[in-house]
Write a structure and sequence with these properties.
The protein is of the alpha/beta class. It folds into four domains: about 5-90, Arginyl tRNA synthetase N-terminal domain (Gyrase A, domain 2, 2-Layer Sandwich), CATH 3.30.1360.70; about 120-165 and about 265-380, HUPs (Rossmann fold, 3-Layer(aba) Sandwich); about 170-255, no CATH class; about 395-575, Isoleucyl-tRNA Synthetase, Domain 1 (Orthogonal Bundle), CATH 1.10.730. About 50% of the residues lie in helices and about 10% in strands. The two termini are about 35 Å apart. The protein binds one RNA strand through helix 2, strand 9, helix 11, helix 12 and helix 13.
Length: about 575
RNA sequence: GCCCCCGUAGCUCAGCGGAAAGAGCGAAGGACUUCUAAUCCUUUGGUCGCAGGUUCGAGUCCUGCCGGGGGCACCA
């Protein structure tokens, strides 16, 4: 979808022409304006004549000829000609392109429009478990979710971050008893657990080995669920301690989740009974094998029987179907969100389809309250299997991020004359950026292979490449000793300048499609193409030593604009753009 | 058994119903007294898993196969 950029403007002109010349009414999008593939001598092409030919009873070429005859676009089109079966190729005027680029230089949003109808989004992402260390399995949801949140906010939407913590359930009985054994009281706060995983394992081991402990743990679960205040106080301490750990990881990763975004399983606890009651009141529930179930239409199990969503288990407890339904009910009804977004792995697809179907039956989801599962594939090791340590253990996120920065530091040390402190900052930006970009640059539906070598490669579609291109630009601007003035005219003389400007003007379309499809990789692809276009320009067009003063100022402005686009794009992905490298 | 996702160059991946399918890596060659060579430029490389169908036009949409992965009742 091309929106808010050159393609849309051309589409408007073409639609207007077709209306006046042939009486055909189409939208600018339906004009099917696309960037022309390179080497054909055209910038954009219109593909509409072929499909319109039948409806107007003319040949495609006749439609194209009528389109050209009625076209009022001399201010932006240098040359338009019919080619092949009925393509219309446009070459845009250099002065018009330059003027558009000049205009963008003064535009904070670099041409990207705000949403026409801003929504209120609740985005579920992150979702670590309390009393466990974050591991590589939390990486994709955190990174993709955060990019989506940033993109939506930039689009002018209201966004509520929802970190769906695993903070409730039977394991908390043993965890809290273990806390008590460790001497925690709530009077003296400021506890810390050095290693959450060891803590969990120790509790588990005692539970399995010690019958008395197990019995205490079971009683503790009852106290917790019964709302016993001393128990709840200990539980809150445990959540707080875990949250501190999550925040450290989020800080290292550059993810914007904060403790105020915690909406864990426990949050929905008070709503579960009412949710089930409401489903029952609407006649949607049945009791099956002792469990209260909703059978949304269209789902069958392996024996062809209807597939249940168990909203209350046989033992009276509630499972995740109940929690998620209560969540939909809460966010649509109590918080009046327009859009629920779940950034959760692909294996959960069936679950969410069923939850959404049931929520629709219950009336919580409708045309004004939508829900979407933004699913993603797995991270694989270079052996093609699920990414783990060589020993087969899950990889701690903290360790992975430390390794990323260490590896980046080695690369940085080889090539820079920055001082040690600056080197550290660059290593962080490069290392973390590499991990995030590698995740975001691929179509999220697919599995991707985690490769240090590839993600830290200096060439190709990597974060470092983009960061380096930007750092070079900023270096030139520093040397210039001046910032290009707002409105500094951008004048196109060389082919490479033209190619760069055409790319820069396509930012709005790239952002729009990334948002529309919850597909950050579309923005990545665009940024990479932009950085490539800049590298070509940088190679061929001297900036500081341009032939004329006008050209020098124009090229400085172009460099400035490129840096703005790259920096903005990276920030929408949650990736830093260092000033120097 | 049913459902979902994926299959594009040797490898890792883009590709919006439109023209001779695009990058990077790899391989071969070239460009630094130069604004950051962490770069750039050549060359090399494709039965778009297979078979039908829809269409003026299919890598893209539909159906059926094949291959890989995932899911399918009381864990979340």
């Amino acid at each position: 979808m091309l929106q808010g950029d050159v393609g849309l403007e051309l589409g408007r002109r073409v639609a207007e022409s077709l209306r006046s010349a042939l009486g055909v009414r189409i939208t600018p999008e339906q004009a099917l304006i696309r960037p022309s593939s390179a080497g054909r001598g055209a910038d954009y092409q219109c593909n509409a004549a072929m499909s319109l030919a039948r409806t107007v009873g003319k040949t495609p070429r006749e439609v194209a000829e009528a389109l050209l005859a009625g076209l009022d676009a001399a201010d932006l089109v240098e040359q338009a000609e019919i080619a092949g079966p009925g393509f219309v190729n446009f070459r845009l005027r250099d002065d018009w392109l330059g003027a558009q680029a000049t205009r963008l230089l003064a535009d904070e949003r670099v041409g990207v429009p705000l949403a026409e109808r801003p929504g209120r989004y609740a985005v579920d992402y992150g979702s670590p478990n309390v009393a466990k260390e974050m591991h590589v399995g939390h990486l994709r949801s955190s990174i993709i979710g955060d990019a989506i949140v940033r993109l939506l906010e930039f689009g002018g939407h209201e966004v509520i971050r929802r970190n769906h913590l695993g903070d409730w359930g039977t394991p908390f009985g043993m965890l809290i008893e273990h806390l008590v054994d460790e001497g925690w009281t709530t009077v003296e706060a400021d506890h810390s657990i050095g290693d959450l995983n060891s803590f969990y394992r120790a509790a588990r081991a005692k539970y399995d080995a010690d019958g008395d402990f197990a019995e205490r743990a079971r009683r503790r679960v009852v106290s917790l669920q019964g709302g016993d205040e001393p128990t709840l106080a200990l539980w809150r301490e445990l959540v707080a301690e875990s949250t501190r750990h999550f925040e450290q990881v989020y800080a290292a990763l550059g993810v914007t989740l904060a403790r105020g975004d915690n909406y864990g399983e426990s949050f929905y606890n008070p709503f579960l009974a009412d949710t089930v009651t409401e489903l029952a009141d609407r006649g949607l529930t049945e009791t099956s094998d002792g469990a209260v179930c909703v059978f949304p239409p269209g789902f069958a199990n392996r024996d062809g029987e209807r597939l249940p969503l168990i909203v209350r288990k046989g033992d009276g407890g509630y499972g995740y179907a109940a929690t998620d339904l209560a969540g939909v009910r809460y966010w649509t009804r109590e918080r009046d969100v327009t859009d629920l977004v779940y950034v959760v792995g692909a294996p959960q697809k069936l679950h969410f389809e069923m939850v959404f179907a049931a929520a629709e039956q219950a009336g919580w989801l409708d045309g004004d309250h939508r829900a979407v599962h933004v699913e993603f594939g797995s991270i694989l090791g270079e052996d093609g299997k699920i990414f783990r340590t060589r020993a087969g253990d899950t990889i701690k996120l903290a360790d992975l991020l430390r390794e990323a920065v260490d590896r980046a530091a080695e690369v940085v040390a080889e090539r820079t004359d920055l001082d040690e402190r600056q080197r550290g900052q660059v290593a962080e930006a490069v290392g973390i950026g590499a991990v995030k970009y590698a995740d975001l640059a691929n179509d999220r539906d697919k599995d991707y292979v985690f490769s240090w070598t590839k993600m830290l490669a200096l060439e190709g579609n990597t974060a470092v490449y983009l960061q380096y291109a930007n750092a070079r630009i900023l270096s030139v601007l520093r040397r210039a000793g001046e910032q290009p003035a707002e409105g500094a005219p951008i004048v196109l003389t060389a082919q490479a300048e033209r190619a760069l400007v055409l790319k820069l003007l396509q930012l709005p379309g790239a952002v729009a499609s990334a948002v529309a499809d919850f597909a950050p990789h579309k923005l990545c692809t665009y940024l990479y193409e932009t950085a490539t276009a800049f590298s070509g320009f940088y190679q061929q067009c001297p900036i500081l030593k341009a032939d004329t003063e006008d050209s020098r100022r124009s090229r400085l402005a172009l460099a400035r604009l490129t840096s703005t686009v790259l920096t903005l794009g990276l920030s929408l992905l949650g990736i830093q753009a260092p000033q120097r490298m």
